[in-house]
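TEACHING EXERCISE
Course module: macromolecular assemblies
Task: Read the component lines below, then compare them to the predicted structure of the full complex.
Student: A.B.
Group: 4
Components provided:
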Amino acid sequence: MAQQEVTNGGSEKKTGGGNDIMEVIEVKFTALKPQLVVEAPKANEAILFYKAAFGAEELGRTLHPKRKADQELPLILSAQLSLAGSTILVSDLADPSETPAKTEGTGLAFYLETDDVASAINKAVGAGAVVVSEIAEGEGAGCGLSRVGKVKDPYGVVWAIGSPAAKAAVVEA
Amino acid sequence: MAQQEVTNGGSEKKTGGGNDIMEVIEVKFTALKPQLVVEAPKANEAILFYKAAFGAEELGRTLHPKRKADQELPLILSAQLSLAGSTILVSDLADPSETPAKTEGTGLAFYLETDDVASAINKAVGAGAVVVSEIAEGEGAGCGLSRVGKVKDPYGVVWAIGSPAAKAAVVEA
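Instructor-supplied answer key:
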């Protein structure tokens, strides 16, 4: 009976249960960008390596808004590298509690861009992902995205789902 | 003295030292594809998840050429999924000794396609990467690539560098 209600078009919007939403939500993603998180402050060194090893080109970088007293240079929140027609992100691990590296023992994650962050996260959770970082807004949200939340999928991969960054936050290389 | 010989321009082509080659090689990469390796036989389940969670579309899949007696279905060597304009690969971990998961504790790696696999690997090694899998040829080389070698970069990321797969090896979804 419950199943019948769920598949009834007229009642879907009213019930709003997790699985109901999954079938209804249409989320459009505009970009997928693999992100490499390295131990701070090695991001700059890593960027030089990817240029030398693979001919990557730097499109721009976003610096961390706060600099600690013992840091000579500001940390890199996110540098955008172009490689073989794709964009990859390289970031300094500024806060060990906010990185895929901590939860997964890896510095690789995915960034998925969309204008509808909340719906995208709801849909992923409905399909079996787990929220590892609630949606945060503003300059400090990370990696040049103005609004971002993170989920971990059943295979251990962390997906940061965010809205595109405000242009002003990006420093051209 | 040895250092001086290496940096002498006239002797570069004869000596062929690693750093000399790095500066000379021009390698063109045609595609970058993140690859997710999951414990076999969960690749099919993972593909269904990425379709449900993110709306990924399957472009095709390459099956493992050999099926073990206890496997109901052949393992997936590589499925190609389209997501937000990018292609990601999902593979069953058929041989635990041949996966980035073993060396890095992660199922995420990168595939870089090029027609000049050997030069690309030489250049990456010259820049500081380490070979983790020598170039192998033929059907069993893995993931729909006809010729592939693997290097690990100084930041722990495994890069499989291979030539594009022969079309015949890909099964359309």
